[in-house]
Amino acid sequence: MPSPFRTLFVGVGHIARAVHMPAFRQLGDDFEVVGAVDVEPAAAKAFAEEFDLPHHSTDLEAALAATRPDLVVIASPPFAHRRQTVTALRAGAWVWCEKPPALSLAEYDAMTGAEGPGGPYAPIVFQQRFGSGAEHARDLIASGEFGPPLVAHCQTTWYRDDGYYSAPWRGRWETEGGGPTLNLGIHQTDLLLELLGPWVEVRAMAGRLARPIATEDVSTALVRFASGALATVVNSALSPREVSHLRIDLRDVTIELDHVYGYANADWRYTPARGVDASRIPVPRDDVPSSHLAQLRSLLADLRAGRRPRASGADGRRSLEFVTALYKAALTGRSVRAGEIVPGDPFYAALHGGVPGWAS
């Protein structure tokens, strides 16, 4: 597939304007943004004029036919992801879809079902995996040099006021999919799973404590991993001092990360156990911050090679499966095992699982 890769934006809100477009502009020799699609005609037109794009539309299928993109960036609200992703894949374009990937496992499986055996593919925006700090921590854990992971804590405690939920699609299962467990904490959760590998069991609680919404505004969970490691996961939209915190205790080293929306190497800390020489702990060779740009560079290499990118297919599904299991555990009051949520399970089709008092 020759570059520059023709790219179509779908959804032109803040994330497209402030985050995606700067990343694509930095790789301007490799990507050509050729158009914008939005349900609001004025928004699509304004975006196209601001970034000097030749095409704008409210009709995705018409835009696909007119621009013939190689890549479609989906930056619309969650309820539109399945339809837009399937439409773009069937038109032969790769898709880079913002989180959360879908409203349910059923929707995600429909999205990946539209991929071809050799592409096009539909990776999800999980940019926290792609910084050099995460790559370094993953390699250090996998090496086993400092022992296995034993205890972990994953925390996404952010603050979203009532005004944030004034958008008509926010805070509703049928349009946003879930609360902070799905829409805020999924990035840090994805990073936890990237570092610790397969999980086997989750127990959880969720609450609607302060926001006038149908979904949860806080959740907590206990997780057992296949390695035997135990972890806690906390997600909140109610926390004035915002932090994204990750801590993993290996036998000989504690790994910690503190940031909010993105990190550099300096945000990671390695603390040796008593008697362990700190000079044994390697340091990253490069300092690549976590960002959409870092993931886009990886996606670019995959486009050129025609290979399945990270955070797509089963790799992209694992965080949504974990989030779904957390909701099931919280809303039913029982532990949930990995792999048990399959077609026919009410939580496969909706994250609230039809539970009275939670389902809309």
Q: Care to describe what's here?
A:
The protein has helices spanning 14-26, 41-50, 60-67, 81-90, 105-113, 132-143, 173-176, 180-183, 186-196, 292-305, 313-332, 346-349, and strands at residues 5-10, 31-37, 55-57, 71-74, 94-97, 149-159, 199-207, 218-225, 230-236, 238-250, 253-259, 268-272, 336-337. By secondary structure, it is an alpha/beta fold. The protein has two domains: 5-127 and 293-313, NAD(P)-binding Rossmann-like Domain (Rossmann fold, 3-Layer(aba) Sandwich), CATH 3.40.50; 132-273 and 320-349, 2-Layer Sandwich (Dihydrodipicolinate Reductase, domain 2), CATH 3.30.360.10. The model has no long low-confidence stretch (mean pLDDT 97).
Helix content: 25-40%
Order of helical and strand elements = EHEHEHEHEHHEHHHEEEEEEHHEH
Q: In angstroms, what is the radius of gyration?
A: 20 Å
Arrangement of strands in the largest sheet: 12-11-10-6-9-8-7-13
Record field, number of beta strands: 13
- Kindly report how far apart the N and C termini lie: 45 Å
Superfamily at the CATH H level of the largest domain?
Answer: Dihydrodipicolinate Reductase, domain 2
What is the assembly state of the chains in this entry? Answer: single chain
Number of domains: 2
Mean pLDDT across all amino acids: 97
- CATH topology group of the largest domain: Dihydrodipicolinate Reductase, domain 2
What share of the residues does DSSP label as strand, in percent? 15-25%
| CATH classification class of the largest domain | Alpha Beta
Low-confidence stretches: none
What structural class do helix, strand and pairing data support? alpha/beta
Biggest β-sheet strands, sense, barrel: 8 strands, mixed
Number of helices: 12
The assigned CATH architecture of the largest domain is: 2-Layer Sandwich
Overall form: globular
Domain Gfo/Idh/MocA-like oxidoreductase N-terminal: 5-112
Organism: Wenjunlia vitaminophila
Domain GFO/IDH/MocA-like oxidoreductase: 136-244
Pfam family, one: GFO_IDH_MocA
